[in-house]
Amino acid sequence: MNKLDQLKTMTTVVADTGDFEAIAEYKPQDATTNPSLLYKAAQLPQYRHLVEDAVAFGKEKGNNADEHATWTMDKLAVNFGAEILQIVPGRVSTEIDARLSFDTAGTLARAEGLIELYQEIGVDPRERVLFKIASTWEGIRAAERLEAMGIRCNLTLLFSFAQAVAAAEAGATLISPFVGRILDWYKNAENMPGYPADADPGVMSVTRIFNYFKRHGHTTIVMGASFRNVDEILELAGCDYLTIAPKLLAELAESDGDLPRKLDAEAARNMDIPKQSFDEKGFRWSLNEDAMATEKLAEGIRLFAADTQKLEQFTREICQSF
User: How many helices, marked H, and strands, marked E, lie in the chain?
Assistant: First the structure.
């Protein structure tokens, strides 16, 4: 077997893309999107009909420009999610607007709208959708409420151990530690051209979280995300899930040779790892003390918000042509 097929025997592979053709080619279990990926996909002519449908829906539902934009964006996310669910057997992750990252009530309200839209087209969001929410304190609290209602959440933009533990204690279904963005920060901060795979700061962060979760019985799924190279992926073979971009999926599919398991849940259960917990003050202090996590979380929210605004502008331009 090639390395992609070997990886699938020990880790659930998720496609990190909004491109349906790439998803169909590499046959992942799940797929995940974000505003940046949707913005790129929405500009492709083969997906124009999904954008036009969302714009028409927004015009019908919205009473003003802001409501029109909100309904259009949510319908677009659901349109892409529904198409993806025709290809993957598992779940799709649908992102809630990053501009609500510090608004628990706003996040809950937006999730309710997305749930309604999925239900209207015959998709059961409790079975087939993960709602992606930034791993702020407010986002984690929103996820806790949604999980209590049976709505599954993916805590994204996760860079620190405190974020991971708080998400697990809130009962989040899944977390997405951003391996490559952690690496980016350390390369810049330490003026390093790179790191060996087993010393990659992003890899080390996910390994620590994985071992801690297995040692202390947390059922939250660890899904490594945002990879910069294949070596990072191979070093996390055995992680619960890995979400991988099409370019790196292709490299794995074209690579032969044995792929050893690097993360082992059974071995982790016997490790000497102290139990930790974070209340709000402890969470905020721990995050503040971690310069990398503080900076990358803020930057990630800004970038996702900027791409959301670009996507909104793109749909407005289409709306004007109707």
Answer: 16, 8
